[in-house]
Amino acid sequence: MKNAKKKIKAAILIIGNEVLSGRTQDLNVSFISNWLNVNCGISVEEVRIIPDIEKKIIFNALDLSKKFKYVFTTGGIGPTHDDITALSIAKAFKVKYGFNKEAYSILEKYYGKNNFNDGRKKMARMPSGSSLIYNPSSAAPGFKIKNVLCLPGVPSILKSMIGNLKKYLTKGKVVSEKNVSLYTVESNIALELENIQNRYLKKNVTIGSYPFFRLGKVGVSVVLRSDNNLSLVKCYNDIKKMVSLKKIKIFK
Questions:
Q1: Which residues is 223 bridged to in the sheet?
Q2: Which of 231, 173, 180, 165 is nearest to 210 (CA)?
Q3: DSSP character at residue 95
Q4: Confidence of residue 214 (pLDDT cuts 50, 70, 90)
Q5: How many Å apart are CA 221 and CA 207, to the nearest integer?
Q6: If we measure between CA atoms, which residue out of 24, 2, 1 comes closest to residue 14?
Q7: d(CA 225, CA 237)
Q8: What's this model's pTM, rounded to 2 decimal places?
Q9: What's the maximum distance between 2 C-alpha atoms anywhere in the chain?
C-alpha cells in the first residue's frame, strides 16, 4: 500500500434485488467502512443500493467513480442469471467482457474439470484488464478495474477477501473515535454540544449524539470523530467538563 497522509474518500455500491426487497439484510456496509477507516485511512462518504438492472449499475458505477477515489461494489458476481455486475461494469468502462485466464485456472482447479460447469465458469468472466481480488473461502475472485473494486455480497466470503484489497489502495488519514454515554436526554445537552461543535469544526472534529434505552434508562451516546488526535482529545475533554458542570452521570 502506498504511503500518503491525506483524506481519501470512497463510496459503496450495493447491488441486489434481495437487499431492496428486504429479503436480505445488508451486513457489508458497516464492515467495509470500518475496515477501510481503521486499516487504510479511507472514509466512506456515500452508499447506494440499486437493483440488478444493467442500466442502473452502469450509471451508478460511472457516476461514483468520477466523484470518489474508490468505489466498492458488493453483489452480483456469482454464477446465476441475475449476477450481472461484471458484465455491466465492462459495459460501463467500454471494455471487453470475457474469461480471465487466471480466474478460470483458479476455479477449474478448485472445482475439478468434471464439476466445472457453465455457472461456475461464469464467475471467471469479467472486464478485460481486471486485476483479481483473491478469495480464500470459495475461490471465485472479485476484481478491480480502474478505481472500482467488485466484491461478493455474501458477508462471510467478503470478510475473508477484504485483506486482499490493501495492495490496490492508497493509504490516507485514519479517523479516530471517542465516545461517552450519558444518563440524560438530547435536549438537555443540545445547545452545549452545538457550541462545542462550532469551536472544533475547523479542526476536523465531528460530534454526533445518539439516544439509547439501556437497562431501563434513557441516555445519549456522544460520539466524536477526527483525523486530528490532538483536537479530538481536547474536544473530548471539553465535553467531559460540560458534563461535569451540568452534573450529568456517565453510563459505565
A1: 179, 208
A2: 180
A3: -
A4: confident
A5: 10
A6: 24
A7: 14
A8: 0.86
A9: 73
Domains parsed from the chain with CATH numbers: 8-168 (3.40.980.10), 176-245 (3.30.70.600)
Does residue 175 contact residue 162 with C-beta atoms inside 8 Å? no
Q: Within 10 A of 56 (CB to CB), how many other CB atoms are there?
A: 15
Contact 148, 10 (CB under 8 A): no
CA–CA gap between residue 104 and residue 102 (Å, rounded): 5
Dihedrals phi, psi of 109, to nearest 5 degrees: -70, -40
Dist CA 189 CA 230 (whole Å):
23
Rounded CA separation 56/137 (Å): 29
Q: Nearest to residue 47, comparing CAs of 27, 23, 22, 72?
A: 72
CB atoms within 10 A of CB 75: 27
pLDDT tens across 216-248, in order? 889 999 999 998 999 999 999 999 999 999 999
The tens digit of pLDDT for each residue in 179-207 reads 999 999 999 999 999 999 999 999 989 99
